[in-house]
Specification:
The complex is a heterodimer. Chain A is mostly beta strands. Chain A has strands spanning 3-7, 10-12, 18-25, 34-39, 45-51, 58-60, 68-73, 78-83, 92-100, 108-112, 116-120. Chain B has strands spanning 9-12, 18-23, 35-39, 46-49, 63-66, 71-76, 85-93, 98-101, 105-109. Classes of the chains: A mainly beta, B mainly beta.
Chain lengths: 122, 110
């Protein structure tokens, strides 16, 4: 079964850091680009970062550029999101998502994890 | 403020048809393929439509997509109570170098 399982969420204070992990199984992780997508309470979906299958191309949303770092370890079938200088508006459910499509203009996402909750509050 | 604009809500009676619009620009919808996602409260989104009008094998043909120009449309025919959910469009934005989601539309079955 194709599966993505996020972990690492929790309650942190503003300015602190957190590292999210995503364990992939049921498919050849190294063949796929991956995303992080978040959803604030009661709000819509927000794409925050993309990483190519090889890890050589990375994109970030402006809202997290310079504070968040996406990475992957294909040997461990794992995706990561290092989040620094966290703010209240980073409070959200964070989803690990598999990317499909033969190029960026064909881009879509077909497998989503259940999400991990990050709460930033003093 | 989402780059892609959707109506906040649409509604119809069981068995009827609803359409959800997703308005963008040449940097996103106009030159890239659109996908659609369904999300029930408290759960992760699920892929409904990809590459404008293709359905994954487990999605019924009551769901269909189209993309005329810089807008996209999701149509749901034979509306069922189980279709009550939030629906999001999404596509790559070449100017932003990022993926963008629509603002989301809540479908209500009357």
């Amino acid at each position: 079964e194709v599966q993505l399982v996020e972990s690492g969420g929790g309650l942190v204070q503003p300015g602190e850091s957190l590292r999210l992990s995503c364990a992939a199984s049921g498919f050849t992780f190294s063949d796929y680009s991956m995303n992080w997508v978040r959803q604030a309470p009661g709000k819509g979906l927000e794409w925050i970062s993309y990483i190519l299958s090889t890890g050589t191309i990375i994109y970030y949303a402006d809202s997290v550029e310079g504070r968040f770092t996406i990475s992957r370890d294909n040997a461990k079938n794992s995706l990561y999101l290092q989040m620094n200088s966290l703010r209240g508006d980073d409070t959200a459910v964070y989803y690990c998502v598999r990317v499909r499509g033969s190029g960026l203009n064909y881009y879509y996402t077909d497998v989503w994890g259940k999400g991990t909750t990050v709460t930033v509050s003093s | 403020q989402s780059v892609l604009t959707q109506p906040p809500s649409v509604s119809a009676a069981p068995g009827q048809k609803v359409t959800i619009s997703c308005s963008g620009s040449s940097s996103n919808i106009g030159n890239n393929y659109v996908s659609w996602y369904q999300q029930f409260p408290g759960t992760a989104p699920k892929l409904l439509i990809y590459e404008n009008n293709k359905r994954p094998s487990d999605i019924p043909d009551r769901f269909s997509g189209s993309k005329p120009g810089t807008s996209a449309t999701l149509a749901i025919t034979g509306l069922q109570t189980g279709d009550e959910a939030d629906y999001y469009c999404g596509t790559w934005d070449s100017s932003l170098s990022g993926y963008v989601f629509g603002s989301g539309t809540k479908v209500t079955v009357l």
